[in-house]
Amino acid sequence: MRKYFGTDGIRGSVGEGFITPDFVMKLGWAAGRVLAKTGSGPVLIGKDTRISGYMFESALEAGLSAAGVDIRLLGPMPTPGIAFLTRSTRARGGIVISASHNPYYDNGIKFFAADGTKLPDEVELEIEREMEQPMQTVYSRHLGKALRINDAARRYIEFCKSRIQPSLDLKGMKLVVDCAHGAAYNIAPSVFEELGAEVISIGAEPDGLNINEECGATKPEMLRDSVLENQADAGIALDGDGDRLIMIDRRGNVVDGDEALFIIARARRDRINGGVVGTQMSNFGLELAIRELGLDFHRSKVGDRYVMEMLQEKNLKLGGESSGHIINLDLATTGDGIISALQILEEMSRSGRSLYDLKQPMSKYPQRLNNIRLENRVDLGGHPEIDVLVREAMAALAGRGRVLLRPSGTEPLIRVMVEGENLEQVEDLALRLTHGVEQILRNQR
Fold it and tell me: Mean pLDDT, to the nearest integer, of 112-117?
């Protein structure tokens, strides 16, 4: 059983629980001990803009040095940029200091292997085993040295631009880019400007405390207002570590991860191996639209880790989540908000169609999501009465919708989701199903 690592590295509120400087330093040491066995080269450390990143960076640097591993510091850098640089510099591993879309008072640490993909489970478990050992520092002559890669941002900017056709010219296109006061604040605007677009930057003044605050991919309202005010062609919102993408069309409508995934799949359908991976929470309208393109649609569990696993299992190239985390495996080793945006802008430029027009072939189904809060987590297996309720709801939808009951991975919650063509029916079914499941679970406590 894992003690520290979750599905997306290690996360927590800074100063609470085990996320302390002492823990982070020992984690750096343990990771250094394990990664030292995997090859030569340094370990890269990059971070987002939250204030605790300074402390975590120093603690990880000390731990890695104590294990005898050299370090290369990247400074603020989007998570996909760290993955790219880990691979391109032939490092033995990369470390990301970020809590993604969370508030500034949270932080987290995740690792990349030498090829820019997430560490295998067995390596994470080996790091956890090292954490249980007493920390010992190598002799002075063997201590790791730390250097800074001063052109890291430029390398990543050029990588992003290389992911689209060299002929792409965004001249005449006006974009608003919301960097969420996060890791992409000094990178994303440059990418689009250098391709010819007129760029209006917002959320690009980090102070260590304002990351994701009322801005970015999780709060696109400010972006929408700016798009309308500036009569922009599109708005681009990233999250704190730059791996999510939410867009705004010129009419002020949100283009979420499902719609973005459809646009990319439609533009690249001849290059994605015949299928697309979504999750259990992907809209049913996306599934229908993908199948109408002549592509298979597969659903993984919620979480980019599971999307990646299914892509690899089925030898596919494209997948993503409604949140905007989209993986183009033939272009990058992990989700990348900038590269996903470039795929869509490239299609806008090629087709001469607006973002609003590009998403029209996909019709999103009404969806209702209710939460059942319980005192403790429960296993939904072994409840035939609940199975009956689900089958009845599915029968009412007559094959033109979905019902999903899913325990939360972090809280004692049961999430009840119903999708269908008719909003009134969806809301009624969701309400009745929620009340029915809640009553069954409470009666069996």
Answer: 95
Phi, psi (rounded to 5 degrees) for 175: -125, 145
H-run or E-run covering 373: strand 367-373
Which tokens go with 273?
Answer: 């191996």
The arithmetic mean of pLDDT across residues 321-339, rounded, is 96
Tokens of 416: 């009840």
Q: Is the pLDDT of residue 192 over 70?
A: yes
Which residue's structure tokens are 């009745």? 432
**Burial degree of 182 (CB within 10 A; 0-12, 13-18, 19+):** buried
- Which pLDDT score is estimated for 377? 66
Spatial strand order of the sheet with 367-373 comes to 367-373, 413-420, 401-407
Reply yes or no on whether 100 is catalytic.
yes
Question: Which is the catalytic residue, given 52, 65, 98, 100?
Answer: 100
- Quote the pLDDT of residue 1: 56
Q: With DSSP H G I counted as helix, E B as strand and the rest as coil, what are the percentages for the chain, rounded to 5?
A: 40, 20, 40
d(CA 122, CA 103): 30
- Transcribe 225-258 into DSSP letters: HHHHHHT-SEEEEE-TTS-BEEEEETTS-EE-HH
- Residue 365: what pLDDT? 94
Rg (CA), the chain: 23
| Mean pLDDT computed over 174-199 | 98
Exposure string for 81-97, b = 16+ CB within 10 A, e = fewer: bbbbbbbebebbbbbbb
Please compute, for residue 314, the number of CA atoms within 13 A of its CA located in the half-sphere on the CB side.
21
pLDDT of residue 445: 60
